[in-house]
Design brief:
- With 478 residues, this protein is mostly helical.
- It has two domains: 169 residues, no CATH class; 289 residues, no CATH class.
- Helix 8 runs antiparallel to helix 16.
- The radius of gyration is 24 Å and the shape is globular.
């Protein structure tokens, strides 16, 4: 059930009608929990058992940990939670990957095993709700939050449908306190704005440029550098608008229901260094990896080598979180390498004692260099075939100045439409950086007539540019 399908519209109307007649907080939470389970079961009813299992295990672990004072026993309870959640994630997401890797290794050594590839169907959203429940037990183990004493509250925290299948990853400390008091339905400008912006990002921008990127990356050998560049830009815009669009819709829907979800993107394509990029891109995941993996490994508390090791391990595992494939590991390695280089350079600058002057031309160059690297790594993210990846990377880095496109079967309309949509994105992305700040406060100052006109224009753009093919959200597969 996609957010922009008619099925979801019916689901939303029924849910809002039910919530409108519920007067007590417990009743509202029960309705939301049932709706969340129904929403998830629309993908595959059987996989609801996984969510129920994680909810049951972590709730019981949390209650037991709350009364346990001995550190060794608390650690054992934490291990139970980690083993249960990561065991499920590991099997469903990485069993096939590990089996394929072992087969390749054995065949490279001259052996021919009798078994074949393991095919395991990946449950939608398992990477997100697994990290969400783990954050609860880890925070509880660290003594940073109190245990949830309501099974209903905890179950709704795990399964809350707006962000269940693709984030943002919500912390228990942020969400559980919101369930203590009754929240009424509200239709604020900011919530409607987030939903509308997310839909436009997805259907107008992401799904349109996806068609061009898919066509080119299916056979990168056939295209010159200029087309590879355009396809790479298209995919970079696609994955940003697809994922941030989902986050926007989730934040808006949660707002209508009376709850707050964390911001997940903050104009990442204007980041001027790798640390800045990861403070802006998929914020809920990057902060999760920082707080629960990087710091747990030791962070920057040890030697310089240990700090670099922790950075690299964090990014390698962050890459592997995105998918069970070696290209994601390579993507994580490249970002980890850049973080290490940036940290080393920053350390040298700090020890030199030279003041860092904030110059416009330096900022522009740093943004351009950072985004060149980011889009280069998107090639490794997009292509799982390493032969095709090598060809695309070579043409991306070593520009061939071949602009003869007429005889290659690439119509002018395909290039024009992609450039048109990319131009819309760049304009809006730039405006979002220029007008950063409190979105809600700015919207309240905008006249209703202007908001109505903007809605009409947005609706017209959605109708005209509605993609011919339905493209699922990219992060559903992660």
């Amino acid at each position: 059930m996609l957010f922009y399908e008619f099925q979801f519209l019916v689901f939303s109307i029924v849910l809002l009608a039910c919530l409108a007649v519920v007067s007590r907080n417990e009743g509202k939470k029960f309705v939301l929990l049932v709706a969340s389970y129904v929403f998830y079961m629309c993908w595959n009813p059987a996989f609801i058992l996984l969510i129920l299992f994680s909810t049951f295990v972590d709730y019981l672990v949390g209650r037991r940990m709350a009364v346990e004072t001995e550190k060794r026993r608390r650690r054992r309870l934490l291990i139970v939670s980690l083993a249960a959640n990561l065991g499920l994630l590991g099997y469903f997401k990485y069993a096939g990957f590990l089996g394929d890797s072992l087969l390749w290794l054995l065949r490279s050594g001259g052996f021919e095993p009798s078994w074949t590839t393991i095919n395991v169907l990946l449950p939608v959203g398992i990477s997100f709700y697994t990290f969400q429940t783990l954050s609860y037990t880890i925070d509880l183990y660290r003594g940073q939050i109190p245990p949830s004493r309501s099974p209903l509250d905890f179950a709704l925290f795990v399964a809350f449908f707006p962000q269940l299948v693709a984030g943002p990853i919500v912390r228990a400390a942020d969400f559980l306190p919101q369930l203590d008091h009754l929240e009424h339905l509200r239709f604020r400008r900011v919530d409607v704005f987030y939903i509308g912006r997310g839909l436009l990002k997805k259907v107008v921008v992401a799904d349109n440029v996806a068609l061009f990127a898919d066509a080119i990356f299916a056979n990168p050998e056939a295209w010159p550098s200029v087309v590879i560049w355009l396809a790479t830009l298209s995919f970079g815009v696609q994955i940003y608008c697809d994922f941030s669009g989902y986050s926007d819709i989730a934040i808006g829907i949660a707002g209508v229901l009376g709850y707050r979800l964390p911001k997940n993107f903050d104009a990442p394509y204007f980041a001027h260094n790798p640390s800045d990029f990861w403070r802006r891109w998929h914020i809920s995941l990057s902060s999760w990896l920082r707080d629960y993996l990087y710091i747990s490994l030791g962070g920057n508390r040890g030697s310089t080598f240990a700090t670099y090791r922790n950075l690299m391990l964090t990014m390698l595992l962050g890459g592997l979180w995105h998918g069970a494939s070696w290209n994601f590991v390579l993507w994580g390695f490249l970002h980890g390498l850049l973080l290490i280089v940036h940290r080393a350079y920053s350390g040298l600058r700090a020890r030199s004692g030279k003041p860092i002057r904030d110059r416009l031309w330096k900022n522009v160059l740093s943004i351009a260099a950072m985004q060149y690297y980011v889009f280069l790594t998107w090639v490794t993210f997009r292509l799982t075939d390493f032969d095709k990846m090598q060809v695309a990377l070579s043409k991306f880095v070593f520009f061939d100045f071949d602009f003869q496109l007429a005889d290659r079967g690439l119509g002018n309309s395909a290039i024009f439409s992609s450039l048109f949509v990319l131009g819309i994105f760049m304009l809006c992305h730039g405006v979002s950086v220029y007008r950063r700040g409190d979105v809600e406060a700015r919207l309240e100052r905008v006249p209703a007539s202007l908001l109505f006109a903007g809605s009409v224009v947005g609706g017209f753009a959605a109708v005209v540019l509605w993609p011919l093919e339905k493209v699922p959200f990219i992060y559903f597969q992660f």
